[in-house]
Amino acid sequence: MNEIDDRRARLSPEKRALLEKRLKGLSAIAAATAEAKPPAEPEREPEVLNLAELAPGAVPPVDGEAWRAMVEAGEREARQRAVAADLVADAAWEKRLDEQAAAFLSTAFRNLGVFQRAGEERTIDGVIADCGVLPKYRKVLRRWMAALAEEGLLERRGDSWVAREPVPTPALDALITDEQRDYYGKNLSAVLTGETHPLEFYLPGGSSASIESSYRETPIFRYCNGISAAVLEAQGRTLPAGARMRVLEIGAGTGGTTASLLPLLPAERTVFHFTDVSKFFTDMGRKKFGAFPFLRYRELDVESDPLAQGYPAASFDWIVAAHVLHATRNIKETLEHTLRLLAPGGVLLLLEETRFQRKYNFSMGFLPGFDHFEDHELRPLHPLLSSAQWRRELLAAGFVDFATFTEPGSAAEVLGVDVMLARAAGGV
Questions:
Q1: Residue pLDDT, tens place only, 351-408
Q2: Cα separation of 82 and 415, whole Å?
């Protein structure tokens, strides 16, 4: 067992819950580890904010010229990376994966004994009561039924869903192997009823290696991180001599995006706050990025007022938020808190999933962090916003400029991930 796995084994239930809020809700990686825990390490005191480091560091507000240079750099990088062979190949699989996902969901319903005859009518509350589904998966069930309605297998009538024919159909059954049918049918239904923890389903053995590497190595995240690095590098070229860049990363998690940005920052002229809602991740970051002395590690819950957590207002020139802001209760409040931390003319770099893909039904779609949202008028079915919705919400929150780098019809758009940039007021 390595050091990180050993730390996971010693997480308390409370800290497991915090961990579930991160990794897009991919949580408590060692939730199913041995019950007998070794003595815990002494608790590390939260890192004290050095207010002198967060005083204005002569970084000028991003003006129109600097903004255009950053946007152009991001657009160039996006065009180059959008045609990468592995990214295009991944996008080509999406239609097939969506079809298979419908087959997996249908198989799970069959395992629950639901929608097995034409005309069978069910409500979500009825399925929860009749099949022993945990109430916390109410939103999950709604997404499953909506997916099958998209396939023409179910019809929605008010609060009820009616089967047009028994599910899965022979055509859907033919899309998956016997092994897949057994695995998904059994495990998906068992997760809903609480017999199986979601992590045991899609992270067998409790290993987080595939999740941690995905934020660095999969084609779509190389695309995102490459654009992010290009934008940051473009601003770095405009910094006057002696200016100190103040950077905050919200929900830094395993540091996949962090790792792509740190080499671009001059150590002697940067202070970078690596933050997360969970101390588990800030401690992980401290071990992982020890070679970068300009990093600071501290907890931050962006759902709460950051000033009440000790952070001064207008104290960061750059804020990075990678695949995290959607996992909050209320987007408007989250953006208000984020903007409060930006200096005049500061920049928010936002990486987000912008399209719900059916494969999320088998991963982060199960976990509390994913269904944490309460602003149902904005997000009725899932927490993800399109790029157009992010633009509207950011401008409504008080940002004055917005840019997005994923071209319509590109492989990156098919994969449903985007890199976005927003600028706070204060630049000319």
A1: 999 999 999 998 888 877 899 999 999 999 999 999 999 999 999 999 999 999 999 9
A2: 11
- Choose among 19, 2, 49, 33: nearest CA to 280: 19
Length in residues, the chain: 428
Closest-CA residue to 167 (of 155, 180, 178): 155
How far, CA to CA in Å, does 80 sit from each of 45, 223, 226, 305? Answer: 45, 9, 10, 39
